[in-house]
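## retry 2 of 3
previous attempt timed out at serialization; input unchanged, resubmitting
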Amino acid sequence: MGPINVDDLRFLLSVAETGSTLSASKALKVSQSTVSRRIAALETDLRIQLFDKRRTGYVLTEAGAALLAPAQTVRQAVDAFSKAAGSLSREISGTVRFTTNDVLANMLLTDLTMRLKQAHPGVRLEVDTSNLLRDLANGEADVALRAGPAPTEAGR
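## retry succeeded, writing output
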């Protein structure tokens, strides 16, 4: 037996759960011929007949029934992997350099920092409360909160 296409297990499970290639094709949003072809390819790869093809639908053979639980375990593992990968890609982390003055920091940052840490524990906040104006364009800070007139292009 050679390597199998693990994606074919989706087709096995869908046909087993729905009882037909037509219903499985609707559930999987593919053509009925694709489902039939993938089931045939899996049976060829495994050298096992998974289904009895009847006029009333597909019925798992004894061998197919024996492979159903392991196929479900693979599906659960793939779902868990996808979920974990998805959460990693949405995770926000890193350092944010924030500059403001003491008054604004005392008024606003305590609550904002707590909410930021709850929502994104991987984010580290560095706060600069000096009165020096930092150049955002040159990377001296990521966020600046200042009271006063908006900076001009020349004064940034």
